[in-house]
Amino acid sequence: MAAKEFDVIVIGGGPAGYVNAIRAAQLGLKTACVEKWIGKSGKPALGGTCLNVGCIPSKALLESSALYVNAKDASAEHGITVGDIKMDPKGMIERKDKIVTELTSGIAMLFQANKVEWLQGAGKLLKDNVVEVTDHEGKVATYKAKDVVLATGSVPMDIPSAVVDNKRIIDSEGALNLTEVPKRLGVIGAGVIGLEMASVWSRLGSEVVIFEAMDNFLSAADQQIAKDAAKHFKKQGLDIRLGAKVTESKASAKDVVVKYADKDGDHEEKFDYLLVAVGRKAFTDGIVDEAVGLEMDGRLVKADDNCKTNIANVWAIGDLVRGPMLAHKGSAEGIAVAQRIAGQYGRVNYDAVPWVIYTHPEIAWAGKTQEQCKADGIDVVTSSFPFAASGRAKAMGATEGLVKVIADAKTDKLLGVHIVGANASELIHEAVIVLEFGGTSEDLASTMHAHPTLAESVMEAAHGIHKSAIHMMNRK
Q1: Residue (of 351, 353, 356, 314) closest to 332 by Cα position
Q2: CA distance between the termini of the chain
Q3: Distance between CA 276 and CA 171 in Å, rounded?
Q4: How far apart are CA 297 and CA 282, in angstroms?
Q5: What PROSITE patterns has UniProt attached to this entry (predicted)?
Q6: How many whole angstroms separate alpha carbon 262 and alpha carbon 147?
Q7: Which of helix, strand or coil describes residue 150?
Q8: Residue-by-residue DSSP string for 229-295
Q9: Pairwise CA distance, residues 62 & 65, whole Å
């Protein structure tokens, strides 16, 4: 029996893969998507890491924990009197699970609406664009496609000094499913995942210690922003230890003993749980037969700027290829590749990718950092505006942080915007749009903003480039 044929087969149903499949189907291409994920309920689920155990569930817990701490600590200054505030971690987790189920089910409905066929199981690319799918019962079927898109995402990195068992030593998925508030929580890695999960459980009462092997905090971020953020985290009680390398961890039924080394020597700490959040690695295990001859770049699939691999009509997107491992970057590549397959124009501007860390205050940036500009030999002008000078921020009780704008000293072209503060995740898109269109800091400054808003702080920071800010002293 001949293999069923499609125009496009996507291997992977995460934010890169499912978006690519939907867009391809919208463009009239007969499309299938292979996804093996089994959700917490035990049923097959779309959405990959992001929807199931990443972006979405973590934001649900961050929101719940923020509401709790605001009710407990911030209501009095608003003239609101409340009784004894209690947090039910199990209820919080149940709400998170409900949101995940609704969203993953929504993707399945979008597949039906767009006539995308969901092939449930693990996919493997064979020669001549044949895709082998092994379902959850072990049954194997083969399919043929004109174009194949690899979108299998990434998995948490592991380290020998802290082997995850998801009992006492947990990964990000384990941290999303704790039903008790740890008295002490250890975290290895002060990156996005480590900081967000540390924030959740710290707000609920955990004593949190974060071990970061690097000497610089948030080395990928603009260091002015990173230092300001670190100051606020310290005030919140997060104990972030830089230059601290975990050398050993031993788990028992009750706790985890962690040994680490820093500039002062060797140390030992005991925690209820230890979260390993040292980054992610591309998931390429068993997704391509060796006979295909797919070129790799380390663990990544080697792809050009159009996401083409060395194999004709085989593409790779998302966490599998160069660039930041961000859901929205993968989705943008998914749309662009679907359009390229369909013979249409598709592009991704890698210079305008927004980054967000959903802590309190939030951290977000787009474009170059001041450190990158210096390394590239670009002469720049910078300006910062503090949220403490924003009327809206004061009314909200959210005066932490600042907006920093970086512009080319010769052309005024906007090079980067960096924010630490309330709603930074939303505000950063002003910068993304200006970067996308190759605009200047003057474009950002001269655009009228509603008053009072947090967004005015972006405008004021841009005005500062030209020493024309109204609500702060301009540099001489």
Answers
A1: 353
A2: 78
A3: 5
A4: 11
A5: PYRIDINE_REDOX_1
A6: 50
A7: strand
A8: HHHHHHHTT-EEEET-EEEEEEE-SS-EEEEEEETTEEEEEEESEEEE-S-EEE--TTSB-GGG---
A9: 5
Backbone φ, ψ for residue 68 (5° rounding): -60, -50
Token digits for 349?
């501007």
Q: What residues does each domain of the chain span?
A: 4-156+281-348, 169-278, 352-465
Exposure letters 158-192 (e unless 16+ CB within 10 A, then b): ebebbebeeebbbbbbbbbbbeebbebbbbbbbbb
For the stretch 130-134, contacts whose Cβ atoms lie closer than 8 Å and that sit 24 or more positions apart, written own/partner, are 130/3, 131/9, 131/11, 131/34, 133/34
CB 196 within 8 A of CB 357: yes
| Residue ranges in 293-342 assigned as alpha helix (H) | 327-341
Q: How far apart are CA 248 and CA 16, in angstroms?
A: 36
Do 4-156+281-348 and 352-465 show the same overall fold?
no
Reading the block at residue 297, the tokens are: 């770049």
Q: Are 363 and 419 in contact (CB under 8 A)?
A: yes
Of 3.50.50.60, 3.90.480.20, 3.30.450.40, 2.60.40.10, which CATH number belongs to 169-278? 3.50.50.60
The DSSP line for 342-375 is TTS-----GGG--EEE-SSSEEEEEE--HHHHHH
* 202/356 Cα distance (integer angstroms): 20
CA 115 remoteness from chain centre: 29
Q: In this structure, which amino acid lies at residue 474? A: N
Choose, from 78, 328, 451, 471, the residue flagged as catalytic.
Answer: 451
* CATH fold for the domain made of 4-156+281-348: FAD/NAD(P)-binding domain (3.50.50)
Tokens of 7: 């125009």
Per the annotation, the verdict on 451 as an active-site residue is: yes
pTM (2 d.p.): 0.96
**What are the pLDDT tens digits along the chain (476 aa)?**
668 999 999 999 999 999 999 999 999 999 999 999 999 999 999 999 999 999 999 999 999 999 999 999 888 889 998 888 999 999 999 999 999 999 999 999 999 999 999 999 999 999 999 999 999 999 999 999 999 999 999 999 999 999 999 999 999 999 999 999 999 999 999 999 999 999 999 999 999 999 999 999 999 999 999 999 999 999 999 999 999 999 999 999 999 999 999 999 999 999 999 999 999 999 999 999 999 999 999 999 999 999 999 999 999 999 999 999 999 999 999 999 999 999 999 999 999 999 999 999 999 999 999 999 999 999 999 999 999 999 999 999 999 999 999 999 999 999 999 999 999 999 999 999 999 999 999 999 999 999 999 999 999 999 999 999 999 988 77
Residue type, 400: E
